Structures
1.
Amino acid sequence: MKKGEIYDGVIDHIDYPNRGIICLDEGIVQVKNGIPGQKVRVQIQKKRSNKAEARLLEVLEASPLETRKPVCSAFPACGGCTYQTMDYESQLRMKEEQIRSLLTDAVRQDQSAFPDDQRTFIWDGILGSPEEFGYRNKMEFSFGNEVKDGPLTLGLHRKGSTYDVLETGDCALVHRDLDTVLACVLSFCRETGLPHFHKGNHQGYFRHLLVRCSAAMGEILIHLVTSSQADLDLTPLVQKLLALKLEGRIVGILHLINDSLADVVQSDRTELLWGRDWFYERLMGLTFKITSFSFFQPNSLAAELLYRRVLEYANQYIIRDNKKAPLVYDLYSGTGTITQLLASSVAREAVGVELVEEAVEAARENTLLNNLSNCHFIAGDVLKILDDLVEKPDIIVLDPPRDGIHPKALPKILSYQVDYIIYISCKASSLVRDLPAFFGAGYRLERACAVDQFCQTPHVETVCLLGRRKPDDTIKVSVNMDDYYQIRDAEEAEKNPS
């Protein structure tokens, strides 16, 4: 195989994350954005030994797993919903197999642990999202052109392109209210005749549209992001937005001025055009105030499933060792959702650490909303804050960014030698990279599960319970997946008899 050569083949399976594997006589080919069983045409881009990376040129034949029609007009050009033609059960099974395989390999490679027959863990399966479509509570849309010098568009980038922006007014990942807002904003912006901000020459005005909403409360927060290269009266846009017929209700409209060269949603200056600059969400009986840049799980309903599993894992500390309620450190705590849920149900005290000061301020307000006196938050970098936290916690909860835990922070976290660590990861490869450090510090992977917060996409959340090894510990036998599927299918059949 050589760079530029074109081959036809069938995708055998998908390795995490989103790597389709094609087995050819010439060697193994990896390609992104495919579905198991598709016959595809690919072009070689890189070649290493007997493996190659390729670009998907064309789907020649659909996969047997593709049992439904696309629900979005931009599919498959957008690339945001790679798996939307697959039935949801097939998506879940594929993601579950990927995550379980990654964790199993990581545990088996832990040479410092137990004999081979004990190098295993309890697999708690995958939890599917209650809503398969329309689940995202946050979306960042970009302004641009679908073709060079074409009319202004607002939507998502074309797959594989940093410049082309597709008009995605019927995006199936967001609630239809957000699609309605997008259409209104695009219509207004086109009428002004002002150009979008071009990443090449850094000239132009319109940059992004950020929309956030609440699943439980129906509140919507709208942010128009522009450069400072024009002085536009946005009053007519506010009037048009407030006149929209929506299922939810707009609670705030903001104008974010961003003159940075980076193509990211941020604000040098924020103007409140109407309403307030936050919205409320409710999860598991608690209320959370969420501001523009506060981290919050993107799928509120699936987040509840995730948090229930975290609380279940935290309870292992009390159940197994018959101990009192624990002191918990929640590192990378965002707006303090997990911290407060732990404080309200499991912990005697919960301390959240978060870098973004705005998120910490919102978290502190949320503790007052929820009448929690055993919940505290510290603003700062985990790497530095840990030096000042002298009291040893009983449990540490980690929910780091996609790239995982900073390598300098990891030794400090492990030095506490707490009984349990709960690691939540939205990028399993980062989690697997970090696991050997936990194993080397005397921890074993006891339980793990996946939570699908990102339906139709390759992404999935992983939750791991890591327990500190003791000489008399024995590791429970993992679930046999064949038995697991039979049990789950039987339960589904019982719930939904035909």
Note: The chain has three domains: 6-61, 89-131+295-490, 138-287.
2.
Amino acid sequence: MPTPRQDIIEIFEGAFHASRVEKVIEERIQFHGEAMEADGFHYALTAYDRCMLIAIGKAAESMLSSFLARSGSAAQLFEGVIVAPDPVVVPSERFVAFHAGHPSPNVESIRAAETILKLLNDLTERDLVIFLISGGGSSLMEQFLEEGTSLETIAATHKALVESAAPITAINAVRKHLSSVKGGRLAAAAAPAEQLTIAISDVPAGRLDALASGPTTPDASTLADVYDAVERYGLMERLPQQIAARLADHSLEETPKSDDAIFARSRWLVLMDSATLEAAAEKSATEMGWNVVIDNSCDDWSAEAAASYLVERVRELRQEKERVCLLSAGEVTVLVPHGSSGKGGRNQQFVLEAAKLIVDEEITVLSVGSDGVDGNSPAAGGVVDGATVARAQREGYPLNDALAEFNSYSLLERLQDAIVIGPTGNNLRDLRVLLAP
């Protein structure tokens, strides 16, 4: 009979395989010659002067290649841009690609924003633009509203926000109000063209405006949210002086809202989100004979608090039934000290926090990022069990030391418990699995 560790690996691998981008695009987007149908939205492609495809995010390449493969003869009608964190193959001479930066913007991130804005500003009401948006777009494409803001300042701003322990919605509220390509401002640039956004979401359900900082959607966040986040998470001390000054003098402009005329010809379609990944994991675990419970209540909690809650939850469930599988999707937060040189990410920090709590217990815990990358490490996440703390001690690297140094990857790699799968071409938030036989 497989061990819980073998099962937990198979559960996450099965969930990732079942949530492939090409599979869902084949199911949800149909082409009939040169006409396209996407979840009931119909487009006669030859009726437009130009058909533009703008793919941005960690799933940009898989979304674009799957879309064009699905489109058949209609592929020749499309032109556009792809912005991704890894080198990509340009599908034709009608497309330009940018190998942009993540988690911090690079020169290509700035060039991508400039190119996309120029293309969109040239569109008319006789054109169609389809945005293929996935997570990671916040850093992959960037240009600040304040002209002349240096890449160094932009990158430092992104880094400060990501490492602040603020939830993603608060981080994105700040980013959107600083940027000329976020918070609906790409939609503003493209108007009055017809617009369709096709999304693979790595943000909480119902918060599409947080995905890639909502470049094409009405922004639900406000300037009041920005200033609240700045105060609540101590951002003034972390942000570059130039940005802190803008926030201090309250000189930022409001982003486009749902009643803005720029969205009159816009539609939005979510292909997948974390619930897709979770449902696939539930199916896989159930087929293995595990009793599955889903609990996403610790979304956006700190890694420490989330670990404490989920470990206690699986203990309670184990009192009621055998072979319990507790699933939890979403993201946890970590506060990384200034100057930290450790390697790791929120998933690996979470499993080490959990390992402290399950010493000598028959509980196995896994946490992985669906994009295949966790923080600044080459791993997607890690797996631990009741023996992890003792094994770390024998290796001469106590678990508490790794946590204090934010060096979770170095310990998990040494224990051969880091999960390294490489970029997946997908991004559906994180998946946590706890098994108690």
Note: The chain has a mean pLDDT of 95.
3.
Amino acid sequence: MRIVELAGETDLAGWRRAARGLRLEGVAPDEVCWSVARADLFGAPDHAATGVAAPADRALTVPPALISLAEGVACHRSPERFALLYRLLWRLRDEPRLLELRTDGDIAAALAMAKAVARASHKMKAFVRFRRVDGARPETFVAWFEPPHRVVERTAPFFARRFANLRFSILTPDLCCFWDGRALRFEPGVAKPDVPTVDDLESYWLTYYASIFNPARLKVAAMQSEMPKRYWRNLPEATLIPGLIDGARQRSEAMMANEASEPARRLPARPTAPVGPANENRTPDTLDEVAAGVMACRRCDLWRDATRGVAGEGAGRARLMLVGEQPGDLEDLAGRPFIGPAGQVLDRALAAAGVPRQDAYVTNAVKHFKHEPRGKRRLHKTPGTGEVTACRWWLDHERRIVGPRVIVALGGTAALAVFGRPMPIMKSRGRPFALDGGAQAVITVHPSFLRRLPDERAKAEAYRAFVDDLAAAHALLA
């Protein structure tokens, strides 16, 4: 009997190494015992994962479908998961189309495990509830969750993308993940901790949940299928569910007894003080007046679909001004420039270039978020020349009030606003151009360009060039 001891409960890499060696040696599945290393009193495993090293001169071809299936099965809590995977690997030599036989017992069991793991990952995304940690600086959130399978590592990147601007911890009995705004970190699981049981926003969430509950569409069995009761103890809204179910029939009858309401009429846009072509003589003298004017601006039609206008932010007499393209989704909601993912890239690059962001003035060529709806998302759309030209009125006044010595144009739209004409970004980047009034301008790429590069090597090279451009602009101040 061969004993293989893996380094952890989800050690798929260790299983692959051991399984490859065993398969090439011809060790049958019933001759292998798979186990997981246990930590001793000092926190170290009893011994390293044991297995047979594969001969260097022999190859083993494994279908990609098996690797994909194994990634899900390895996260299942069944103690037989690794033995099942090795049995499939063993059978594939004589049954090359085995993975297509969904009626086979081993295949059906593996697919059921992978499906259960995928469902557990989905439920983690749906039912994790963060609570604010009182007194923590910077602001920090924590959540406790008990997943039915070991899905923390495969699900944590979703939360890092979804809540990129938050610092949070997700604590589970298996594994804990921590996000500091830049990188995910994992540590061993813990017993249920003394996490916050309520925060000051929870009452608003409960009010909202109760208000959207539609008793006429209640299906208790379907609801409990999608929201199993084992998750209820960690959901603040679960305290409302029994009462909402009990009163659903009476509420439905009351709704049907009411007379039909008139459909809402579309109201005209809220009148605001005109600031634009009809009132261009009202020249702002302070940045506060610029911000107020941007909020009421109607110089183009972008205000109709945006949440608010977003003016610049930073030192009132900054020597360095950074000009981007337009507010993004997060900036449109918060009313501040460069606080989203592109803003995080910019902050890191400024720090690497030795440029304190707090000493610079940061703004955009266009002050309203141009986008198109796509389901529940708002997708960015590049502003047109007419919109950039209309909004240049505000940028010119920001430049007049702030009085920067150096202006960095981040991308083509920003360059169009700063120079009044299109500029070739890659040919012009990094070198100074003289502007009216004695200031100088430097052109470089927009931080979002770096995020869109698919190749990691190209992304690293482009980031270094971006940092060099910012450092060159900062050097002009000397």
Note: The longest strand covers residues 2-6.
